[in-house]
């Protein structure tokens, strides 16, 4: 009789008590820049519950001019941050161990745009505008190897310096300033464009990095983040209209100065840059050949204190 009463009591408790919900693990990610389509896959993975499905509560931060992604990672304000491959390799060579846990870029977005339908490689010694907030590794390497001797003029953002005629050429990225020029009515032709991805300077760009110590202690967390992030990007590629709606939600929340058309074009280009030219697939991985090429180019240009290997970049 006592045993029967015990079973009844247990069954009653199971009915009235809520099921035990395991608490999701917090994971703080700082993106490479302000809210925009460049980070659509991460927004989608969060909004669609892909991170929650693997037990993660991903908190997405955006850097500012006074608080960079690197500074936030260094001071442990976040668990992971986004850098270009070359930036990460630079940090590693300086003795700051980082590990790539997810790669969302397969190709360089860098384009050098010149005036007057002139080949940028025929503008030796001319004034070229470059991003003040970016190390511009590839730009400097290309200029040195091709003997261009450009006069560098730094700018914070926007295309006004180029449009005003203050410089002869400007660096842009294919998913942002390139489209700003088009929206401003500037006539572009292939004659005045130097696409780095079409030459020997095609190097992968943004990936997500953590400190090596974090990677050693949280390998499964990193694996889960990569798994859900990939799902977010694949969903974005298959549902671009809905993905853009989610991006615009973040754009409005963080007051990003942009528009719907610009973010649509950016999303399309970001997705294009994710395709491996060789396999025609969206792979989300660091390519060993590109790491080796980047290391060689940077060492030759005096940008690395030592070569950085593929194995150390991915934590092996």
Defining key terms:
316 residues, 10 strands, 5-stranded mixed beta sheet, alpha/beta
Largest sheet: 5 strands, mixed
Helix tally equals 14
Query: Cα distance, first to last residue?
Result: 61 Å
Average predicted confidence as pLDDT: 92
Quote the beta fraction.
15-25%
Which structural category fits the helices and strands? alpha/beta
Low-confidence stretches: 1-21
Computed CA radius of gyration, to the nearest angstrom: 23 Å
| Helix share bin | 40-55%
Number of strands: 10
Order of SSEs, N→C? HEHHEHEHEEEHEHEHEEHHHHHH
Q: How would you describe the shape?
A: globular
The neighbouring-strand order within the major sheet is: 2-1-3-10-4
Task: Summarize the structure in words.
It is a single chain. The chain is of the alpha/beta class and 316 residues long. Helix content is 42%, strand content 16%. It contains 14 helices and ten strands. It has helices at residues 2-16, 40-47, 50-53, 69-74, 85-93, 137-145, 160-163, 177-183, 212-217, 219-238, 240-253, 260-273, 288-300, 310-313; strands at residues 25-30, 56-61, 80-84, 98-103, 110-114, 127-131, 151-155, 169-173, 193-195, 206-211. Strands 2-1-3-10-4 form a five-stranded mixed sheet. Strand 6, helix 6 (137-145) and strand 7 form a beta-alpha-beta unit. Helix 2 packs across helix 11. The protein is globular, with a radius of gyration of 23 Å. Mean pLDDT is 92; it is low at 1-21.
